[in-house]
Amino acid sequence: MQNFEYQNSTRIVFGKGTIARLEDLVPADARVLFAFGGGSIRKNGVYDEVRAALGKRTVEEFSGIEPNPRFETLMKAVEVVKAKKLDFLLAVGGGSVVDGTKFIAAAARYEGNDPWQILLDAGASVKDAVPLGVVLTLPATGSEMNSTSVVTRGATQDKLHFASPKVLPLFSILDPETTFTLPERQVANGVVDAFVHVVEQYLTYPVGAALQDRQAEGILLTLIEEGPKALAAPKDYNVRANIMWTATQALNGLIGVGVPQDWATHMIGHELTAKYEMDHAVTLAVVLPSLLRKQKATKREKLVQYADRVWGIRTGSEDERIEAGIAKTEEFFRAMGVKTRLSEHNILASDVAQIAAARERHGLPLGEHGDIGRKEIEEILEAAV
User: Fold this and answer.
1) What is the distance between the alpha carbons of residues 93 and 118, in angstroms, rounded to a whole number?
2) pTM here?
3) CA–CA separation, 152 and 385 (whole Å)
4) Is the residue at 1 inside a domain?
5) CA distances (Å), 298 to each of 183, 273, 294, 302, in order?
6) Which end of the chain is least crowded, N or C, by CB within 10 Å?
7) d(C-alpha 2, C-alpha 8), whole Å
């Protein structure tokens, strides 16, 4: 097992009726930016619950944070924070709202000339940030319990990430009942997103991290078992509770300690989102199977283990078991209603070179061994058409 340090100070408040806890969790004298996305929180009652819990605090609302949060939109929120001298941010929504609010928190106290530098240097320039809390309504990204954010710049079609302990949420409220009215597409995307988060930390190469492996496998098995149930029974509290907590565990850093990590699927997927505005999880479902096949040689031991422990595939040659495990993964994505081929999104083989070139501009090589360059990306995407 590799050396590691782990610290996660986010307070998780989980369960029914917990939005009311904002009254205690947000400082009584806070001047709050209430950040959210579209109108869904007004329809499902979350908006009213949040406003009631915030009481008489000074509150400025900022809505319209996109599913892939745009730098241009977020900078408008930064202007509000500065102009109104706000000192606490509350993100209410899914991972995109949380990611966007993290950027607002960092950019509002950024001392340089251009806050885009936060993304260009992956957070190295973040020295301070406005404190923030979260009310999660869409389990998927784990952003409610990690220090990472992904932001898109529409003008240049760049989608980049940054990480900083300064933007780790002070608390996150997770009430599974807020997810009852989510559209099937968002539920499916959330399950796939969480699944791939685990795979990116698990399907690399063995380093003797037995506990992390078992934790990762437990998360994957839970998503496989509970994901279809969430589509079939939208208001089953226990199913939604399991999905919500599992998605948080998928990317709160715990299963990634002491082990090599990949993230090439995410980096390639970001280019698809930036260029074609594909849902983040959809890009992952497209890229992952082809990437695993391409990297079969370097991931062999873990792929065999994955086929055995997650999918129960124990017969046939190693290559046959590996292929069966990858096929099962693709079948699971499709069972959740998520398409897995570029051609199903009207992206052709002739588009591949341009996508790979965009990824090259944002930095190569990728993968846990640093062996995925532009040529390999093109091959992965061509196989995904």
Assistant:
1) 23
2) 0.96
3) 24
4) no
5) 38, 27, 9, 9
6) N
7) 19
Q: Residue 40 sits in a domain of what CATH number?
A: 3.40.50.1970
129 and 32 in a common domain = yes
- Domain boundaries, position 107: 11-178
In terms of residues, how long is the chain? 385
Contact 103, 149 (CB under 8 A): yes
Of the candidates 207, 198, 234, the residue with the CA atom closest to the CA atom of residue 310: 198
Residue pLDDT tens, the chain, 385 long: 999 999 999 999 999 999 999 999 999 999 999 999 988 999 999 999 999 999 999 999 999 999 999 999 999 999 999 999 999 999 999 999 999 999 999 999 999 999 999 999 999 999 999 999 999 999 999 999 999 999 999 999 999 999 999 999 999 999 999 999 999 999 999 999 999 999 999 999 999 999 999 999 999 999 999 999 999 999 999 999 999 999 999 999 999 999 999 999 999 999 999 999 999 999 999 999 999 999 999 999 999 999 999 999 999 999 999 999 999 999 999 999 999 999 999 999 999 999 999 999 999 999 999 999 999 999 999 999 9
**Residue 354 placed within a domain:** yes
d(CA 57, CA 68): 29
